[in-house]
Amino acid sequence: MLILKEAGVDFNAIDYYINPISKENLKELLKKMNARPCDILRTREAFRKQNLTVDLLSDDALTDLMASNPDFDPTSDYRKG
């Protein structure tokens, strides 16, 4: 965030622990980024804790996980203001 602030970029930072992202908003964000859920998913620690494997889950299943559990969400969401 500091880099964006220093560059004068107008953005909104969203804390998904306080305001969880909906599945619909997550799909919209992925579309804008031209990305799949596995491209932005925080997998390492959260997936190990639950013994999950990204390769075995569909994009829809990953999107469900990301929308229902902030530990799987992208680390942050910055949208031009």
Give a description of the structure.
By secondary structure, this protein is mostly helical. The protein has one domain (2-80): Glutaredoxin (3-Layer(aba) Sandwich), CATH 3.40.30.10. The chain has five helices and two strands. The chain has a two-stranded antiparallel ribbon with strand order 1-2. The model is unreliable at 75-81 (pLDDT under 50).
Task: Give a short overview.
The protein has helices at 2-6, 23-33, 37-40, 44-50, 59-68, and strands at 11-13, 78-80. The chain is mainly α and 81 residues long. The chain has one domain: Glutaredoxin.
Cα-atom Rg, whole angstroms? 13 Å
CATH class: Alpha Beta
Corresponding CATH superfamily = Glutaredoxin
What characterizes the major β-sheet?
A: 2 strands, antiparallel
User: How many helical elements?
Assistant: 5
User: Which strand order spans the largest sheet, edge to edge or round the barrel?
Assistant: 1-2
Number of discrete domains = 1
The structural class is mainly alpha
Helix fraction bin:
40-55%
Q: Indicate the mean pLDDT.
A: 78
CATH architecture: 3-Layer(aba) Sandwich
Q: Write down how many β-strands occur, each being a DSSP E stretch of 2 or more residues.
A: 2
Q: Please name the CATH topology.
A: Glutaredoxin
